[in-house]
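[job 4471] stage=fold_predict status=RUNNING
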Amino acid sequence: MSERNNVTEQGDIHPLAKKFLWLDSPKVKKNFIWLSVSGLVMTTVLMIFYPNKHPAPWEVGPMKLIAYGVIGGFAYTFVVLSAKPLFAMLSRPENFYGEGDDHDV
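[job 4471] inference complete, writing structure tokens
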């Protein structure tokens, strides 16, 4: 805790970042998962009371509550698994831009 106070007293931190120092407290770090869980519960409750006007074909019965979770899980898995092939396809060698060469000088 004293380390964080030293940072703010010394002025080694950007002025706009000082407003978010409360996110560094151990209490926030420990209980951050409950923010996600409460958002999930609130979304589920809202979907029960305010259903879609034109539901998708897979939103029948209990699938209504988990359909978007399943779709989101597959989408997330696709993004994570496509990272390696995309990196191999888009990356360039370290000397691609010739930063180490002094021939232009």
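[job 4471] summary: The mean pLDDT is 81.
[job 4471] exit 0
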